[in-house]
From TrEMBL:
Similarity field: Belongs to the cytochrome P450 family.
Native source species: Miscanthus lutarioriparius
One Pfam family it belongs to: p450
Bilayer-crossing regions: 12-30
The name this protein goes by in its record: Uncharacterized protein
Keywords: Heme, Iron, Membrane, Metal-binding, Oxidoreductase, Transmembrane, Transmembrane helix
SUPFAM superfamilies (alphabetical): Cytochrome P450 (SSF48264)
InterPro entries: Cyt_P450, Cyt_P450_E_grp-I, Cyt_P450_sf
Gene Ontology molecular function, alphabetical: heme binding; iron ion binding; monooxygenase activity; oxidoreductase activity, acting on paired donors, with incorporation or reduction of molecular oxygen
Length: 356
């Protein structure tokens, strides 16, 4: 007599089998990861605090990370190792060690991390600050050193810095006089402190604006005036937001598999900031392009954007005949190769030799 097996027992056996298989797979993965971590610990890494499994040493960073790192360096020495999420880091706290890292072993530390700020505000890591070391980065660095921030360009913009410093001093004089007058009744000396942070910030923004863009987009007074591309408050907000996000700690930057998580809303702030900055830059480029077309051959660049635009146009004009010449040379070479099979075979063998 046959006894039927209940379906519940069959499903229970299947569940137990799947749970056992999942347990074995998870155990195997964890053991392999532990083996890799043990192998990584065999490397002669500098001393440092013991990292946690997921966040690393992020729990040690407080509101002022530079002070926390200074305190850790006093405990672990001038060269210590930290782990920020999934990424290891080496921290140098002495001149001698910094010279070794930045001069002797500079090629090993030239790559930039892929962070959210470089992706959303610098056109997908295309700026010199965020791009990886390679031909593109070397070309950008050469462009900045030889053309945009050359000694000649710095001398030409010296007047801008002097004018902005004088403007700050003119603004400070009535401010200090008014503050001293208001406090003279309560103080025998008639002196009062002045907060320089706001004035120094305005000087910095105005100098950057005039050197790079050719106009002063922050203040209404002074050379250059305000522009319709953005209100002074909007321009200042954009610059301050870019500075802030360059130093902000985004969760996805340290733990890539949590990049979808944005607890502080940084990515949500960077996306509209990038669109707003795009519109502003497009307006500035149109202004420079209109001025260059209006002045023609008499055009003289006055700022970094004008210099770059002028150099780019000159390279395009000078490179157009060369490109045509190169195209004709390539077409002639293709024609010769198609007519002479011996030369074609020799070129193929040479290409194979060079490639191998």
């Amino acid at each position: 007599m046959e006894v039927p097996v209940p379906r519940a027992s069959s499903s229970l056996a299947t569940t137990i089998l799947l749970a056992t298989a999942l347990f074995l797979v998870t155990t195997t993965i964890l053991r392999r990861r532990g083996h890799r971590h043990r192998q990584a610990r065999k490397h002669n890494v500098p001393p440092g605090p013991r990292p946690w499994s997921v966040i690393g040493n992020l729990n040690l960073l407080g509101a002022l990370p530079h002070r926390t790192i200074h305190e850790l360096s006093a405990r672990y020495g001038p060269l210590m190792s930290l782990r920020f999420g999934a990424f290891p880091a080496v921290v140098s706290s002495s001149v001698e060690v910094a010279e070794v890292l930045l001069r002797t072993q500079d090629l090993a530390y030239l790559d930039r991390p892929r962070m959210a700020c470089g992706k959303y505000t610098v056109y997908n890591y295309s700026g010199m600050l965020w791009s990886h070391y390679g031909p593109y980065w070397r070309q950008l660095r050469k462009l900045w050193i030889t053309e945009l921030l050359s000694a000649r360009q710095i001398r030409l913009t010296e007047r801008v810095r002097a004018e902005e410093v004088r403007a700050m001093l003119r603004d400070l004089h009535p401010t200090t006089m008014a503050t001293a007058a208001s406090t003279s009744s309560s103080s025998s000396t008639g002196r009062a402190p002045v907060v320089l942070k706001e004035h120094l910030l305005m000087v910095t923004l105005n100098v950057i604006s005039r050197m790079v863009l050719g106009k002063k987009y922050v203040g209404e007074q002074g050379p250059g005036g305000s522009a319709a591309a953005a209100a002074p408050e909007e321009f200042r907000w954009m610059i301050e937001e870019i500075f802030f996000h360059n130093g902000a700690l985004h969760v996805g930057d340290m733990v890539p598999w949590l990049s979808w998580l944005d607890p502080h809303g940084y990515v949500g702030r960077m996306k509209p900031l990038a669109k707003m900055f795009d519109r502003f830059i497009e307006h500035v480029l149109r202004e420079h392009g209109d001025r260059r077309r209006l002045e023609g051959d008499a055009f003289v660049p006055r700022d970094i954007v004008g210099t770059q635009d002028h150099n780019h146009s000159a390279k395009i004009k000078s490179g157009y005949p060369n490109r045509k010449k190169n195209e004709r040379t390539v077409m002639n070479a293709i024609q010769q190769l198609s007519e002479d099979s011996a030369i074609f075979h020799r070129c193929i063998m040479t290409a194979h030799t060079v490639y191998n």
